Fold this protein.
Amino acid sequence: MSDPRSDAWQALKRAPEATLSELFARDPRRVEKLSGRIETGEGSILFDWSKTHLTDALLADFEALAKAAGFAELRRKLFAGEVVNPTEGRAAGHAALRGVGDEASVADAMALAARMKLLVEAIHDGALGEVNHLIHIGIGGSALGPALAVDALARDIALVDVHVVSNVDGLALEEAFRACDPATTLIAVASKTFTTTETMTNAASALAWLADNGVADPSGRVIALTAHPDKAVEWGVDETRILPFAESVGGRYSLWSSIGVPVALAVGWDDFVAMLDGAASVDRHFRDTDGRANLCLRAAFADLYYARIRGAETRAVFAYDERLRLLPDYLQQLEMESNGKRVTVDGSRVDAPTAPITWGGVGTDAQHAVFQLLHQGTHLVPVEFVASVAPGDNLDPAHHRILLMNCFAQGAALMAGKASGDPARSYPGDRPSSTILCDDLDPATLGALIAFHEHRTFANAALMGINPFDQFGVELGKEIAKKIEQGGGRFDASTEALLQAAGLG
Ligand code: F6P
């Protein structure tokens, strides 16, 4: 008997129907069919996938694949708080943090959020003394979300000046020290496990910095954000300053938990909640919409079409908004750590590529650096543009107009191309792009934007039959680093020589 999932993939492998320009010429309703909006609160986000090669036929084939892959059941499990991370036997609790999920998970999340609100407001009210700066120490998912959200939302209004430090390279922490007054600095130690070497090393140095600079009770200036409060207590943090979150919340999905404290401290509790509410509107859209009308699922259809059918090895994201300059970094972890896998949930080898390599930058800068390859290079790179209709700046409106015009011009140029008798001056065109256009980049919109990508990543994984919620691939390097530190191992000749050369052998 044939496997319905591989039959669905086979159907998708048929030859491309037409070029993008031909697809537009054939169907006057193409933009309408392949664009959609999600209301995020006061505004909305437009998702325009019409400049991809998705067609009615491909969408129908992908819908058949979703059915064969049991997508609806996996999605039900996600929102029901059932196990969707089988290798670790865990649910994935990020939507519950936004109030969307099964009753018990949502109630637990709300209780923890209430505790977080109390501490955030107490800090704003001076309960821990004057707090002008926060050094937020964490790495990976314990840093990338807060860094993105603070950079996007707290540029001119920060109630507390936040510095996110992730790298164990002491230069990173020293830079934060230079910008902060130790007498009015709070340290947040953000680690789901509370064991990560980089974070614990930085946290110890931050405490030493406070002590060296005359702070009488350095550990009284520390808050801990973790799924392992016992470890934080052991490390010396007072229980009243520990904000826990559930084990079911994955590191790269943890911005919505207490890991979001720097965001709440910088923008205030109400705006933090607005960010959660914006994410919840996407949760409801994703949970309640079927087939191609589900915009996260539709985006995954296009992702998989390019990665698996057309062989695109990368996908590029360009934020035409300085406030989103950290979005590509954030998406790299979300997409590559979630879906960079080589086995399916049942342990068998995948027979096609999984996550493409996510990369990107900001427009217009990237146009003058990497767009040459996108327009005329030999790689197929689906490009995503992210922009906001309302400007973030207060300068001459010309700035924002030029920014947006350039954004739209790039998508048009990638698609249309241009013929020339001179091969060096001709553009092949037919290069796909998608555009995410926000009305305004307010907290709700940012939350919605991030949640859209979380669910898109989940949908990709569901269609490929892989588990997006574990990350065992990061462990081996950590183990070897430990062995080196303990001086207990023999390694390959190259590594041994490098260790010798650095005086570590
Ligand atoms: O090494 C990868 C990773 O486990 C990420 O998944 C995680 O976000 C990061 O490390 C930090 O982990 P923790 O929050 O436990 O310090």
